[in-house]
Amino acid sequence: MPTDSNRASLSAPDSVLHALLGAVFSGFAHPVIIKDAQLRFVHVNAPACAMLGRAAPELLGRTDDAIVPAAQAARIAAVDREILASGEPRAFEEAITTPDGEARHLLTHKHRIAPPGAREPLILTMITDVTELRHAERRQRHSEAHYRALVDLLPQVVWVADARGQVTEIGPTWSRLSGRAAEAAYGSGWESAVHAQDLPRVRRQWRTSVTSGAPLDVQCRVRAADGTFRWVRNRAAARRDARGRIVAWHGLLEDIHERKRAELALRESEALVRSIVESTPDGIQLLDAEGELLLVNPAGRRLFGAPTAADGQGRRWDRVLAPGDLAKGARALAQVRAGRVARFEAYVTPRERPGLCMDIIAAPVPGADGKPARTLTIWRDISGAKAARDATEAARRAAEAAAAKLAAVLENTLDCVVVLDREWRLSYMNANARRLLSLGNEAIGQSLWTLYPQEQNGVFADHYRKALATHLPVTFEEYLPALSRWLEVHAAPTDEGLSIFFRDTSERRRAEQERFQAQAQVFHMSRHDALTTLPNRVLLRERLERGLAELEPGAHLSVLTLDLDAFKPVNDTYGHPVGDMLLRHIADRLNGCVREEDTVARVGGDEFVVLTRHGGAAAEAPALAARLIDALQRPFDLDGVSVEISACAGIALAPDDGTRVEALLRASDVALYRAKAQGRGTCLRYVPGMDTPLLARQAMKVALKGAIARDELELFFQPLVDLSSKRVSACEALLRWRQADAGLVSPADFIPLAEESGLIHAIGQWVLRGACQEAVRWTDDIAVAVNLSPLQFRDENLVAVVAQALTDAGLAAARLQLEITESVMLDESAANLRTLQALRRLGVKIVMDDFGTGYSSFGYLRRFPFDKIKVDRGFINDLPHGRESLAVVRAVAGIGRSLGITTVVEGVETQAQLEVVSAEGFDEGQGYLFSGPVPAAQVPALLHRLTRRPPEAGPGTANETPQ
């Protein structure tokens, strides 16, 4: 208000105007400042005083140069004069330091306004504190940078594709692997890096996954940065939305080139051994553990007269040896079973080749566990003296050749091989062993304990000594500190010492450990809420099942379901970070009210369940519920933001209210539903029959599903009248449901059910098509208005549905007005704004309904250029005598004129109300003074009647259906 010193300079109309502006903006949560044409303060609301650090009497009548430094005041005055001169609004953001030294970010909007009756224009300044928003944006950027750093560190290539299988994002490891830019892989650009022979198979498998939703797992070759091709394994899984539709694919591409090379080397090694066996002139037989012949090489078939492999199968070697040499064979077989190589001479029976003397070598073939599983025998004919000498020489040469070939096999095997004599000296190492042990040829002949003295009395030495002492192979896996590696070892004693086969299993052990940790983490995450770390619904059910199974006679198990009141406004007002912080504080308070053995679970966005066991006193559960509700009603301090909420609770007891999980949870939900109906802070225990209203509600929901098919839905229309011409400008479509056995059902009863069940999309399309088809029967100057539910904006096909309805009906887009409520702007505002802009491009008109009832109705006028705003009927009911309502109505009319937006009042029922809103300059009116809603068939008659009867004649007919 002006001070005494300048009040005389204001005329009586100006004083009234300034008082009115003060009444309008005094309740705003954000700072508001109004200046006159001389740039003097004529109104500052309480938030503005707090921001400037001065009381209103110290500010009113003064200019900025009396409040802030001269340079700053000059800049402010220059902007204000430019706005007064041009009439163009200004919006800018600036960083300031408050009187108490705190840095804040402010978003300032300035407008020139010309209220009715004012002698000169005014400057309206509205300021919004966006400090928390900027802090949240910085935290978001930090989180994204953290995620990107993690992706950069991964050795695998992380990639993302959309639901159609087109790559939209790929990690930096792709560029390091392929030498190509990440952008070149987007869409289907990755195909250019795949080997031409592998590409058709990869395409086929990827199309199958995208079509069916099955995970992808494919191996192929891709061109590396150096131009060579490397083997990779590409895996992907679909991410689905709440309705099970695929919204994206997340993939991981892993370099497996070295593993592939190892597999190829193993196959080549196997082929080499097979070539040796097939080409050697000695007879070779493979026997099972009992000495039964399993296979024989070509030389063996020729030697024993068996023309084919099948003819040699199934013969035991003791049936081949002469009777006098059977004992030699038995001893040799025993040595082989002990893991040692045996060599002896023996004659074969006359049945085979009489007088044939054979030099026989028998060696163990270890199985997967390292123990002898098969016996390999090598037979050479040494008959006759000369033949013996020749055979000896040939045997020497063959042995040398076999040794060379065996060494070649050992050098190509994937295992590390070390041979020790009985003095622990190294007599042989293959290449893999030399690389792993970091030893050269100079180590041959040295003692193992000289090379690794710290292991002489360690675990490895114990196993080796045991093998030599028992003459039995040993198999073990241990950690070798000297190499910082895990080794899997097979050690077999020989006549000369010890043969050791080992391999590095560190990566496998590490992978197993990581897999175990990942499984444990996944298991924990699958049973706990990620935000509060409380048990989720899965773990709650498990503990409830266990509690029911262990419930003793006379004891009770209580299920308390709590639902928070006013949690959504906290999210809407302060943002989701504050809402998440509030949920964590709530979890802490609930845990502080229960015992350690009790369970507090989060089962929904703002729904918690407490599971507790107690003795025979059933009153313990309501007492606990009361403590929980009281704890939640105390204010929460969330980083300087004080938040107050309340809660309701529903209680079910076992075994009184059920002995099964589903029955108890349902009973607790029913009790909660009834408690919420009675008001905040209410706690009720379930009693039989409590779910009757819910069952009725469910029955109505089921009936609603078939309402369209049964032709039970009807459209009524209520006219909107242009207050200057007194002609109907539009008709608003209103939905009615006429049940065969219950008559008309109130929209207030079935519209929430339609939104809850998802039927609102089908019903909304039906209303939209029907309204457009009815409107084409009216004259071209009358539009049709259709209300859209906020849930319809979640349908990505909404714009296409509207366009199709206009096309099918042949209705001009400019004749369709779509009415939305403030919640559309609150819920997913960025996506909904894009939808509103797409609808605007179709040519339809956008109307904000129930204007003035929400948190930020005025703010939304800046975010989207609405064609029309409808003032809620709540501001019209107490006109013409309600001063507060009159001030709001007058302010809305002025804003509409300033912004060029059509203004509408609904709920006009008396001539006095009509005169007030007409005087304030509203463009259109709607209400029973003109007509109530009427069926579609009566609209032509209604339009004809309204053109002949002025509104002063009274409201519509008494039999019109109320809105």
TrEMBL record:
<dbReference type="InterPro" id="IPR052155">
    <property type="entry name" value="Biofilm_reg_signaling"/>
</dbReference>
<dbReference type="Pfam" id="PF08448">
    <property type="entry name" value="PAS_4"/>
</dbReference>
<dbReference type="InterPro" id="IPR013655">
    <property type="entry name" value="PAS_fold_3"/>
</dbReference>
<dbReference type="InterPro" id="IPR000160">
    <property type="entry name" value="GGDEF_dom"/>
</dbReference>
<dbReference type="Pfam" id="PF00563">
    <property type="entry name" value="EAL"/>
</dbReference>
<protein>
    <recommendedName>
        <fullName>Diguanylate cyclase</fullName>
    </recommendedName>
</protein>
<dbReference type="InterPro" id="IPR001633">
    <property type="entry name" value="EAL_dom"/>
</dbReference>
<dbReference type="InterPro" id="IPR000014">
    <property type="entry name" value="PAS"/>
</dbReference>
<feature type="domain" description="GGDEF">
    <location>
        <begin position="555"/>
        <end position="688"/>
    </location>
</feature>
<dbReference type="InterPro" id="IPR035965">
    <property type="entry name" value="PAS-like_dom_sf"/>
</dbReference>
<feature type="domain" description="PAS">
    <location>
        <begin position="143"/>
        <end position="213"/>
    </location>
</feature>
<dbReference type="InterPro" id="IPR043128">
    <property type="entry name" value="Rev_trsase/Diguanyl_cyclase"/>
</dbReference>
<dbReference type="InterPro" id="IPR013656">
    <property type="entry name" value="PAS_4"/>
</dbReference>
<dbReference type="Pfam" id="PF08447">
    <property type="entry name" value="PAS_3"/>
</dbReference>
<dbReference type="Pfam" id="PF00990">
    <property type="entry name" value="GGDEF"/>
</dbReference>
<dbReference type="InterPro" id="IPR035919">
    <property type="entry name" value="EAL_sf"/>
</dbReference>
<feature type="domain" description="PAC">
    <location>
        <begin position="216"/>
        <end position="268"/>
    </location>
</feature>
<dbReference type="InterPro" id="IPR029787">
    <property type="entry name" value="Nucleotide_cyclase"/>
</dbReference>
<dbReference type="InterPro" id="IPR001610">
    <property type="entry name" value="PAC"/>
</dbReference>
<dbReference type="InterPro" id="IPR000700">
    <property type="entry name" value="PAS-assoc_C"/>
</dbReference>
<feature type="domain" description="EAL">
    <location>
        <begin position="697"/>
        <end position="947"/>
    </location>
</feature>
<feature type="domain" description="PAS">
    <location>
        <begin position="269"/>
        <end position="305"/>
    </location>
</feature>
<keyword id="KW-0614">Plasmid</keyword>
